[in-house]
């Protein structure tokens, strides 16, 4: 609930219902979710639109809280219903439903008000930027490939709003790169005389500035489907590494065909000049309409690492992926460095070179856990999407709150790399965690005050009751950034994960510089959902706050009791 509450409190004007069923009802036809939780409990005043072709009914979905059907037609384009060809569950059928009394006119009015309210709330009727003139073409033509083209081919040129986007993308990509392993400080590279680059993911893209689908050769810098777009340019790791290596007169050798590398004796590839460092680039593609079927990297990537690491004593692995990958080679003694670069965008090569050569210290933190193997995951990927059983698309949410690190920590399951971890080229210390009440003279009640609902829910749940602080210091010799993380443990009487993240703050520090990170703790942060009373309550007993640099690297703790017995 809380991520949705955050978005609504931040004045999000639209919400999207998804494809799955919840408690037996499709999300776009689930009144408890849309009317009860979203619009009533969380006070959402905008409109609910379907994910594309996520609607399965007309009146039932409208009554359940769906306000807009996208893209508006039933797949296939027309469906035979009662001997009448219809193209939409909504549209003219909503008009018919109002006329025959199956849908109250007041509900239709509500749908219209919710759709139009954001238009005026966002002042789109007052000096709002005009639609890009190139979009006029899409009013008459549209195909799945159109967003890969610049519409000026057919009409007016697209408006250029990029400004310094290239520089921003490079900074974002550099700061989000996570270093998981750096044996014997193999990184940053120190003017090596020779390097070898392996893997199809290092190569320039072979399909132009728009990546239409999976390709064997070419770096992966962006997701597929609606997450895709047309690059202004794309700097591959190979191109950037060759340019940087030239500054040191470094010999660069490279092999880009994974099918060859995985079975090759790589020593025979580089001949007499053994590289001082071997860089292996891996990828795994993620896109809508084609869910990942597993957690390994694509195109024999694991075998490529083994082939290289078995012969190269200084193997550095870089992954480009939209999510988590298992890493069966992580503990290989010759794998000395691991960098998780995710999807870095058009400055892919430059951003990874910034890290590899030490122009920037890595500061990204892992936003998920890397398990030891796929069988350790408590929620396996869903791959069977063509069945016709009664439980099709039903999301059971049987994991409850035990998602990712909250599952592994609670059940003490060993992992490869924990949530929140990320190494740096410098060192940081953390000390003096403390927590103090915001209003010491006020006695805190277990139950929140019943206030009128506002966007985000009961305003009382957003009251800051405590403030936690912890002191950080850069104890190394290099400037860098770290992320202080605050976790909470509820009293034993409450059925909850053993550890839950309650705050994080990234800070940049010069050598010797210190900083105090501050974390506000709202009532909701200290509350659990009481099923019997059907409300958020702060339990009695002792809470434990823990601060650290990851979900396992917890360096400070403090015990406090919000509600007295």
TrEMBL record:
E.C. number: 3.2.1.21
Xref: Gene3D superfamilies: Glycoside hydrolase family 3 C-terminal domain, Glycoside hydrolase, family 3, N-terminal domain, Immunoglobulins
Pathway membership, UniProt: Glycan metabolism; cellulose degradation
Reaction catalysed by this enzyme: Hydrolysis of terminal, non-reducing beta-D-glucosyl residues with release of beta-D-glucose
InterPro entries to which the protein is assigned, alphabetical: Cellulose_deg_GH3, Fn3-like, GH, Glyco_hydro_3_C, Glyco_hydro_3_C_sf, Glyco_hydro_3_N, Glyco_hydro_3_N_sf, Ig-like_fold
Any one Gene Ontology cellular component term annotated for this protein: extracellular region
Gene Ontology terms for molecular function: beta-glucosidase activity
Keywords attached to this entry: Carbohydrate metabolism, Cellulose degradation, Glycoprotein, Glycosidase, Hydrolase, Polysaccharide degradation, Secreted, Signal
SMART domains in alphabetical order: Fn3_like
Origin superkingdom: Eukaryota
Family as reported in the entry's similarity comment: Belongs to the glycosyl hydrolase 3 family.
Role of this protein: Beta-glucosidases are one of a number of cellulolytic enzymes involved in the degradation of cellulosic biomass. Catalyzes the last step releasing glucose from the inhibitory cellobiose.
Protein name from the UniProt record: Probable beta-glucosidase G
């Amino acid at each position: 609930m809380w991520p949705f509450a955050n978005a609504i409190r931040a004045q999000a004007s639209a919400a999207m219902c998804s494809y799955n069923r919840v408690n037996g009802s499709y999300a776009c036809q689930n009144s408890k979710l849309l009317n009860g939780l979203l619009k009533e409990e969380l006070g959402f005043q905008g409109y609910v639109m379907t994910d594309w072709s996520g609607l399965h009914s007309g009146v039932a979905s409208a009554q359940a809280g769906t306000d807009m059907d996208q893209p508006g037609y039933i797949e296939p384009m027309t469906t035979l219903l009662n001997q009448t060809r219809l193209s939409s569950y909504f549209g003219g059928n909503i008009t018919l439903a109002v006329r025959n009394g199956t849908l109250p006119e007041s509900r239709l009015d509500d749908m219209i008000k919710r759709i139009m309210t954001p238009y005026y709330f966002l002042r789109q009727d007052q000096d709002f930027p005009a639609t890009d003139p190139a979009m006029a073409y899409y009013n008459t033509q549209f195909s799945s490939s159109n967003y890969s083209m610049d519409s000026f081919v057919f009409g007016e040129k697209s408006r250029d709003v990029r400004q310094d986007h290239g520089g921003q993308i490079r900074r974002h990509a550099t700061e989000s790169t996570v270093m998981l392993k750096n044996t014997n400080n193999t990184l940053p590279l120190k003017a090596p005389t020779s390097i070898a680059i392996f893997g199809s993911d290092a190569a320039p893209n072979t399909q132009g500035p728009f990546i239409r689908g999976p390709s064997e050769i070419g770096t992966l810098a962006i997701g597929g489907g609606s997450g895709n777009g047309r690059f202004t340019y794309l700097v591959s790791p190979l191109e950037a590494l060759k340019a940087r290596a030239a500054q040191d007169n470094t010999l660069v050798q490279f092999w880009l065909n994974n099918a060859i590398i995985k079975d090759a004796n790589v020593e025979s590839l580089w001949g007499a000049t053994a590289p001082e460092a071997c860089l292996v680039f891996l990828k795994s593609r993620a896109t809508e309409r084609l869910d990942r079927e597993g957690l390994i990297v694509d195109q024999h990537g694991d075998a490529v690492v083994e082939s290289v690491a078995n012969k190269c004593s200084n193997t550095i692995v870089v992954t480009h992926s939209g999510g988590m990958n298992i890493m069966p080679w992580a503990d290989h003694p010759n794998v000395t460095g691991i960098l998780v670069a995710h999807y870095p965008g058009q400055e892919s090569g430059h951003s990874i070179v910034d890290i590899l050569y030490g122009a920037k210290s890595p500061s990204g933190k892992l936003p998920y856990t890397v398990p030891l193997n796929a069988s350790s995951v408590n929620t396996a990927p869903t791959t069977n999407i063509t069945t016709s059983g009664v439980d099709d698309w039903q999301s059971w949410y049987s994991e409850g709150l035990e998602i990712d690190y909250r599952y592994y920590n609670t059940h003490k399951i060993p992992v490869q790399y924990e949530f929140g971890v990320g190494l740096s080229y410098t060192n940081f210390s953390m000390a003096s965690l403390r927590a103090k009440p915001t209003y010491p003279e006020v006695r805190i009640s277990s139950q929140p005050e019943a206030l009128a609902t506002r966007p985000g829910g009961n305003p009382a749940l957003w009251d800051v009751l405590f403030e936690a602080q912890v002191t950080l210091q850069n104890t190394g010799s290099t400037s860098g950034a770290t992320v202080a993380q605050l976790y909470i443990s509820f009293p034993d009487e409450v059925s909850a994960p053993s550890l839950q993240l309650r705050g994080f703050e990234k800070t940049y520090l010069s050598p010797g510089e210190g900083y105090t990170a501050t974390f506000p703790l709202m009532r909701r942060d200290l509350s659990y959902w009481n099923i019997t009373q059907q409300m958020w309550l702060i339990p009695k007993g002792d809470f434990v706050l823990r601060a650290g640099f990851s979900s396992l690297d917890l360096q400070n703790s403090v015990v406090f009791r919000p509600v007295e017995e």
